[in-house]
Amino acid sequence: MTGTRAQSRRAMLGLAALVLLTAMLSVGLGARGVALADILSALQGQAETIGQAAVAARIPRTVMALLAGAALGLAGAAMQGVTRNPLADPGLLGVNAGAALAIVIGIAWFNFDSAALYIGTAVLGAGVAGVVVYLIAALGAGGATPLKLALSGAAVTAALVSFTTAVVLPRADIGGLVQSWLVGGVGGATFSQITPVLPALVLGGVIVLASARRLNLLALGEEAATGLGESVAVARAMSAGGAILLCGATTAACGPIGFVGLVVPHACRAILGGDYRRVLPASALTGAALLTGADVLGRLVARPSEIDVGIVTALIGGPVFIWIVRRGRVAAL
């Protein structure tokens, strides 16, 4: 036990160091190279030179990437625990697409223009989409099996994306802005955009982290969890509610970003085992590092332009998804 705890601490420290490293790279690297002196000056609030101004613009972008990555990593781990489905992911289960459609409808039909409306609408859309996917998967013999969840999620996501396109196409006045947002990215982020989503992200994160013990019991099976005194319905509602809150707020801020919630929990379980008391915080750290690193990569490979982080994570996550399916890892967790 002592050795396991020591290994977990080392792993957590390593992940924390990785997050710090990617944050430093995000601040220092981009279309324009900057000197260390400019980075240090910008961190102190100066923006007198072009280099300092570039770093000053990257700081909120880095913060947004760290927060969004942590939120998506946590949400993915929680969803995989609730559904006992190794293919569960906010993007694959239609949650991100539901949040995106809700925001697009709000903008196009109701002229939403406040952050609070965006966040509330996104959370509502994410929740409705998640419930619809689960209900469809639960139909027929065997209930909501991992494979049926993945298939129903793919079908609902395709339908929601089509509805989103149908809403946007007739609106030339918002089409360009919305289409860019739908790709998913953190470019151009400012602290005024980050501040409104912080309460939702913090609340969702606290709920999910507090669900670790319940997720451990769910992993034993419904009968075992009930026998140990846990209400399966409460455990699922609490964990899923926190995950949906995280996904909705992140989508409102950055657009739909996929595959982070799929890849991260698998990596964390491979390193730390299946105990959600370790998997959840590790997923937050790994998600933050992955999304921030993907954003840096998108800036570097297309200099002087950049590739949105949603495209980079799809390029990373797509092969991982195929690998998981090919390895036959669609059995329940």
Q: Topology, pairings included?
A:
Elements: H1 2-28, H2 36-43, H3 50-83, H4 95-110, H5 115-138, H6 146-168, H7 172-183, H8 191-210, H9 212-219, H10 222-227, H11 232-254, H12 260-272, H13 276-301, H14 309-326
Provide a descriptive summary of the structure in words.
By secondary structure, the protein is an all-alpha fold. It has one domain (62-327): ABC transporter involved in vitamin B12 uptake, BtuC (Orthogonal Bundle). It is 77% helix and 0% strand. It is built from 14 helices and no strands. The protein has helices at 2-28, 36-43, 50-83, 95-110, 115-138, 146-168, 172-183, 191-210, 212-219, 222-227, 232-254, 260-272, 276-301, 309-326. The protein is globular and about 65 Å long. The two termini are 23 Å apart. The mean pLDDT is 89.
Structural class: mainly alpha
Residues in β-strands, percent: under 5%
Count of domain modules: 1
CATH topology: ABC transporter involved in vitamin B12 uptake, BtuC
The unreliable regions are none
Give the quaternary arrangement of the chains.
single chain
Question: From N to C, what is the helix and strand string?
Answer: HHHHHHHHHHHHHH
Distance linking N and C termini = 23 Å
Instruction: Give me the number of helical elements.
Output: 14
**How many strands, which pairing sense, and closed or not: the largest β-sheet?**
none
Q: From the coordinates shown, what is the CATH architecture?
A: Orthogonal Bundle
**Compute the gyration radius: what is it?**
20 Å
Kindly state the number of beta strands: 0
User: How much helix is in the residues?
Assistant: over 70%
CATH classification class = Mainly Alpha
Task: Write down the overall geometry.
Answer: globular
**What integer is the average pLDDT?**
89
For the record, what is the CATH homologous superfamily label?
ABC transporter involved in vitamin B12 uptake, BtuC
